[in-house]
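B., you asked whether I could sanity-check this one before it goes into the benchmark set. Here's the sequence:
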Amino acid sequence: MKISPLYLKKLLVVLIGHALFVTTVNAQKNGILPLSGMKFFNEGIMSGSIQVKVDGMPLMSNRIPLNKEIEISVQQPAGFTVDNKQTMYASAEVIVLSPRGEILLNNPDALLRNYPNGFTAKDLNSFSIKFGIGTDLMKGNLNGMLKIKLYDRKERAS
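And here's what the prediction gave me:
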């Protein structure tokens, strides 16, 4: 069986197009965390896995208790810019919103205090964001929304 060069060119174009499409779809993969029902959106910064714990125990619902230590662990993140010293500047914005959309808490860089000089590739393989939401913050609100945004501090600064 002889394959024509024109057929091979068409096949190559289709394969390249498919590879580009699959990469784009994978880079913008969205999902829901198991057991908690919490949604996540990968928009530039991606992660191998995300875990949410409350006082060291896995979160089993979409309700976050007050006055507890909340830890969001990120494993194998990707998408950060590496500088000449092989350092990456990961950051996380923590926002708590009231049911009406009012900002009750906004920490624009939750990782800056612990990692002011950035991360090495080894450090960035797995890291955690730890914070708490006090009852005084939620006073007058029966519920609210927690938003965590991972971003590249170097990209945002430029």
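One thing to flag: The beta strands are 30-32, 39-41, 49-54, 57-58, 69-75, 90-97, 103-107, 126-132, 145-152. Otherwise nothing jumped out at me.
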